[in-house]
């Protein structure tokens, strides 16, 4: 099997080199240049759009064109990542994230290209590697991508946690909420009765909202609250930022209505006004096991002697955007654990197996 040519040491070295390049969301310039050079050196035609999304195309010998999606940014603002290898696991010194999300996926793609370069006789479809920017900020890069650049009709997103062998076939719709409460400023020590306290309005609204785990398919959160000027001024304005997600659109609509109603009712009670915005960040997708990306992923996983694990996720990937625009994708586990946290880590053998699954998906005989 060609998957047996995955070189453990080479894959690890590539991964370590990638995580050593700082690339928090909004600061992907250096990693973008590095990836442009690497994909070009491995035989791809590479292009980059105005915001930094990279598309690398490797011509194939089969009629299909397959999308392989990853992202180059890392979550949060951590820089100076120092990876440590202990007992076959790569982690950090505990002061930063690792960046396996999603540099483990990118390392796997580069290993795939290295193997194909050394085995030019192996047939494979044309490969479109899409490495986005801004994924960690609500799929910012993919949402601004010009899909006319792509020829793929289906694909695979190597950017999820979970056991190796997991196939993410169903994800929710996610909506960002921004609510601004307009009260009235007043001197809190001299004439507070002339003010309308926007913080109090916000507190009452939040207390009345259904938040957290609503049901098996729906979650909601208020994540930030900002406003006010000084401790002796009745706050005239407060802004809340939150989100709601659900695998069921009707349930999501009900949740959004409940959050809006709680805010509206609290504002009305105190004579405040409300601006409420709900922005859809990504839309749900549900890939059936009979559809091509699921079938091909499952076949590759089973060929490795692993169990296929259907996974219903509470999060999103660039795959949500591609699915919404007609490119059917499933998301695959890369071995990352505790992504976005200082405890983030990845077992080397999991990263190797994920790469073997990737190589097999690309090179296995068509059904």
Put the structure in a nutshell.
With 367 residues, the chain is α+β, with helices and mostly antiparallel strands. It has 9 helices and 20 strands. The chain has helices spanning 8-19, 29-41, 100-118, 140-143, 198-208, 249-270, 292-303, 318-324, 348-363, and strands at 45-48, 54-58, 62-71, 83-86, 89-92, 125-132, 154-160, 166-171, 173-182, 186-187, 212-215, 218-227, 233-234, 237-246, 273-282, 285-286, 309-312, 328-333, 336-337, 345-347.
Describe the structure.
This protein has helices spanning 8-19, 29-41, 100-118, 140-143, 198-208, 249-270, 292-303, 318-324, 348-363; strands spanning 45-48, 54-58, 62-71, 83-86, 89-92, 125-132, 154-160, 166-171, 173-182, 186-187, 212-215, 218-227, 233-234, 237-246, 273-282, 285-286, 309-312, 328-333, 336-337, 345-347. The protein is of the alpha+beta class and 367 residues long. The protein folds into 2 domains: 2-171 and 284-363, Zn peptidases (Aminopeptidase, 3-Layer(aba) Sandwich), CATH 3.40.630.10; 173-282, Alpha-Beta Plaits (2-Layer Sandwich). Strands 1, 2, 3, 6, 7, 8, 16, 17 and 18 form a 9-stranded mixed beta sheet that branches. Helix 1 (8-19) crosses helix 3 (100-118), helix 5 (198-208) packs antiparallel against helix 6 and helix 7 (292-303) packs across helix 9 (348-363).
